[in-house]
Write a structure and sequence with these properties.
The protein is mainly α and 77 residues long. It is built from four helices and no strands. It starts with a helix and ends with a helix. The model has no long low-confidence stretch (mean pLDDT 90).
Length: 77
């Protein structure tokens, strides 16, 4: 993985984390792209480089959570 890919993934991870933090405070239906961007410290255009919509971010965050659970249950697989 080169530096650009690493930065891209780091930014996506920050937005996923920001979303999860917001989710702990309010229902996902009321979380906006603007709030995620502010919490993650990214511009709205950066959000749309990574995701087509807030629903795509939700899918990504859910997938990451499932991967974390799987790696906890089976660290080798």
């Amino acid at each position: 993985m080169d530096k650009a890919e690493s930065k891209y993934q780091h930014t996506a991870a920050r937005m996923d984390q920001a979303f999860l933090e917001l989710l702990s405070k309010k229902d996902f239906a009321y979380i906006t792209v603007k709030e995620v961007c502010e919490a993650a410290g990214v511009h709205r255009s950066t959000f749309y480089l990574h995701y087509d919509s807030i629903d795509a971010l939700i899918d990504s965050a859910a997938s990451d959570m499932v991967q974390d659970i799987i790696s906890t249950i089976d660290p080798d697989g």
